[in-house]
């Protein structure tokens, strides 16, 4: 198993013999990865997962929830 990314880790001769096309698109998903990373950082900072669980478990009845779900 080869770990890494980019064409430098691929045996081009072997893939060509097997009819496998190898392509390199270094900027293909860079923006998508950056946006996803920012979303994960914000979700962590704002306790989104913990708040979602709090609501789904039915612990938030109405009004402004207490901050007990934020406590670690």
How far apart, in Å, are the first and last alpha carbons? 40 Å
- Could you say which overall geometry the principal axes of the C-alpha atoms support? rod-shaped
Give the class from helix and strand content and strand pairing.
Answer: mainly alpha
The largest pleated sheet is described as: none
Give the mean pLDDT: 82
Round the Cα radius of gyration to an integer and report it. Answer: 22 Å
Helix proportion: 40-55%
Secondary structure: number of strands = 0
Compressed to H and E, one letter per element, the order equals HHH
- Domain count: 1
β content, as a range? Answer: under 5%
Characterize the structure shown.
The structure is a single chain. The chain is mainly alpha-helical and 72 residues long. Helices cover 43% and strands 0% of the residues. The two termini are 40 Å apart. The chain has one domain (7-69). The relative contact order is 0.08. The protein has helices at 12-17, 30-45, 48-56. The mean pLDDT is 82. It is built from three helices and no strands.
């Amino acid at each position: 198993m080869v770990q890494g990314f980019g064409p430098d880790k691929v045996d081009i001769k072997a893939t060509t013999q097997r009819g496998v096309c190898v392509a390199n698109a270094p900027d293909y998903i860079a923006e998508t990865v950056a946006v996803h990373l920012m979303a994960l950082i914000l979700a962590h900072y704002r306790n989104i997962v913990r708040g979602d669980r709090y609501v789904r478990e039915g612990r938030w009845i109405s009004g402004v929830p207490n901050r007990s779900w934020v406590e670690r």
